[in-house]
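Exercise 7. Predict the joint structure of the components listed below.
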Amino acid sequence: MRVSVAGIGSTRFGRHEGATPQALAIAAARDAILDSGIDRGEIGALYLGNFVSGVLTGQEVLAGLVADGLNVQGIPATKVEGACASGGIAFRHAVMAVASGQVRVALAVGVECMTGADTTRVTGALNCAMDNTTDGAAGLTYPGLFGLVWQAHAARHGTGRDDVSAVVVKNKRNGLRNPLASMGATLTVDEVSAARPIADPIRLFDCCGISDGAAAVVVTAADRLSGHPGPRIDILAAAQSSGPARIAGLRDLLSFPATVRAARAAYAQAGLGPGDIDLVELHDCFSVAEIVDSEDLGLVPPGAGGGWAREGRTDIGGTIPINASGGLLAKGHPVGATGLGQIHEVVRQLRGVHPNPVPGAAIGMAHNLGGTGIACTVTILGRADA
Amino acid sequence: MRVSVAGIGSTRFGRHEGATPQALAIAAARDAILDSGIDRGEIGALYLGNFVSGVLTGQEVLAGLVADGLNVQGIPATKVEGACASGGIAFRHAVMAVASGQVRVALAVGVECMTGADTTRVTGALNCAMDNTTDGAAGLTYPGLFGLVWQAHAARHGTGRDDVSAVVVKNKRNGLRNPLASMGATLTVDEVSAARPIADPIRLFDCCGISDGAAAVVVTAADRLSGHPGPRIDILAAAQSSGPARIAGLRDLLSFPATVRAARAAYAQAGLGPGDIDLVELHDCFSVAEIVDSEDLGLVPPGAGGGWAREGRTDIGGTIPINASGGLLAKGHPVGATGLGQIHEVVRQLRGVHPNPVPGAAIGMAHNLGGTGIACTVTILGRADA
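Solution:
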């Protein structure tokens, strides 16, 4: 059965002082339901993506809390977790619930509240995504991991500091035009390259910011949407994979097998190839991650990610626009919300209502990566009228 | 598509000093895969039920860790959470993955490691299942909640201390014969009624014990199992519901709407009624919970739960054998594992290999309840040859 996006909603990603995860999730979900024009009573299943609400806020059972708060109590309401890929996993499960004929309408919500805790606590919480019997026990943190990845990319492909800085300049600039992003900025390559060191060679602006936020998507059978205004956006693929749990399991620091597998599955589901993708929102948790992800997705030739960014080929109007929203670098990364936030951005592009539009975009991709590449989702969306 | 149980595995529930959640989960999953006789390479999806591993052990992404440890890395591996119902939710999703034709074989695993933390920390972690903006903020804990439920049952139905103690005596006695249970005991009603007070009127033996443990089930299409030895066990129903997030949302302290809804859905799916159920493993997190649950499931008339226990009508050989395994009271409650542990017990009963057999059992039920009734699963299993 063809499944389509019926409605989308999102809070601004950034700081929401004093907000609870359930309040942000309910706000985003209400917007998505309103946007769908579907009565909330038709929602048959709810999936909520969240990573560390238990650790940071002492609150679990968020799926049930949100179902209750939306007054759709009674339906199956399930929290799913796959570290930073939790939001993409929630979306895929909502799609499957409709595609299998189990329900007519499903709601996916993603949320995280992180700014209420100090950076040390947040770093500790994020490390719950590592195998703490191995990588974590060695003292590694995520900036450290991506510092190692960067060093490998530089050693193998000669990627320079300024190549990577070009990714940051682009995403921060894109974010400036996106009201959902609160960390957009006008920066020069020199400013990015000279920022405060974090984990060599990663510097401050190479890192996505600790954030609060929520995003939501309502999905339904395509035929349910006949007569709705505007272009219908179909789900052409929703793939999920797992990968090595620890760095020792990666054969190559420059490729995440989970991304490669999910992309391969998504292209096969959609009957498309990398050349068909008009834009991508991908998981730039660190600047260098955008480079590696774009190569793993087949959108940029291996080793060319840094050069393409420097040459503007990944900007709007370039060969493959990457993170026209500003990405995680400019939007922030409220972990459980990120995957649904990406889909929200792609849908706005395909509907032609994005504040930072990719002209003529008909097919878009979202890529959500968790932990040390332990979980990944790749989603392909397309305009039904294209 | 008809879905069947292909294999089951479980660790003992109790104390596993120094064990990690992933190690216990992998042990149970390996046993289930071995029991199934199916090559692990055929597993197409993994669902892992876990509640508070992040909070208590600082480890998330357990689904990916277990997939990697089992060498089935690459497949979609998803942690699901619905407080104490997490295990039942994992099972339902594995069943749906097969029923929808998405995969041929799916693995559900549930796990929790709790004994490494002191009781205060565990109580705090368990409170992540409450709405902490309301019930939790009022200072309530789970023993306190079920103390209130008990007081209501006593006030409405005249249920006495010794009626409730009869539940404990039965379950502790049943557990003595179950090698997977480590808290079985020979107790008298007087001993139970005189134990150390916890949260009035709940006393020590009315509470399930803090535990470590894991359980796993492999499911597949029924036709995949032709030629396998022993009776085939089919999934006749796998229902999931949500309920009020807080006590103020319960119209009646003596009924959890999530149980009533999931039971109604499960009976409808199976085309059966309460009178068809030969045995049930239900969520006796506290002694009085068994009474309320048995009434909500329609297995015991409203208000009669205590009396039936005292009269032996819920014992093996009685009208409806409840928790022949010893239940949570004698097995302990490693939260994320409990729902799959219940299904493990029911499958052993229907296969005729349970150490505490219900003679002639052909149809069994498992009931898994989370939080303040915020999430529930009800599963009905049946012998294909019955």
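Discussion. The mean pLDDT of chain B is 97.
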